[in-house]
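Table S2 (text version). Query chain:
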Amino acid sequence: MAMVAARAGVSGQTVSRVVNDSPRVDPATRERVEAAMAELGYRPHRAARALRTGRSMTIGVVAQTLATVGNSRMLQAVAEAAEVRGYALALVTLGADGRIVDAFDRLHDQDVDGAIVLNEASALTRDADPAGLALVVVDAPADPRFTVIGTDHVAGARAATAHLLDRGAMTVHHVAGPADSFAAAERERGWREALEARGRTAPDPLRGDWSAADGHRIGEALVADPAVAAVFAANDQMALGLLRAFADAGRRVPEDIAVVGFDDIADAAEFRPPLTTVRQDFAALGERAVRILVDRVEGRDVADPPLLMPSLIVRASA
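Corresponding structure-token output:
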């Protein structure tokens, strides 16, 4: 730092202010100091900063798996938002048999400042003990132990189901997500509410594991019933499997069976036919998760924010 100060012709305190992104540095001086840092290859020492500030500038992320599109897109969004704020990430995946309390122990060992938990509401309710770790949880019921953020899955599912009913379907079948998923349960609730609002009977939902393969398996069962004319899938990957099963059976989409998904993954517009779906704003979710967690870490009061509203993206499948 002393070498940077000498090269830039400023005090060590000014270099410190630049490193810590203080607003008390005029732009010309900041530019001169940053140029000196680049010339000398200077980088702040994270461990030394942690000793000085009491913070590691590291955020933990906990997820059961990164195999689902939703979790992988949330991780990317969190990583981008954390980088803007100068925070690093420490990722812990639970695996099939992992316990979330073990994940918290591992994050404590890494001295993270706080953690963001992706879509693990059931595990949190069952056995989580944050033990003083600041937490932001994506998609979970309200809980005094942590701050909850999320998408309004109920509203998104209602919009998807209403769209299919508006196209003339007498009822809408539902390919639901896993039973232990909070987001899946909320999407199923929105589907039921939309049918009840129109006085329609809800068929028994068929439950999948979020994968296209499971969507295909369920689609093969649905095509056996000629009365099935509209299907709302709890995510786009299962909707993709449905489209293949219907095509294999010679059932045209949307003429014979209309399909709506959820998420609006990057390739949804490239499905055949392009998929009508409910769009989640993963970038906004990731930015909100990091911003709220940093506020909690730095001692600012945080209230649970309102849910982010999704939007129905109408394409050719419904």
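Notes on Table S2: The mean pLDDT is 89. The radius of gyration is 24 Å.
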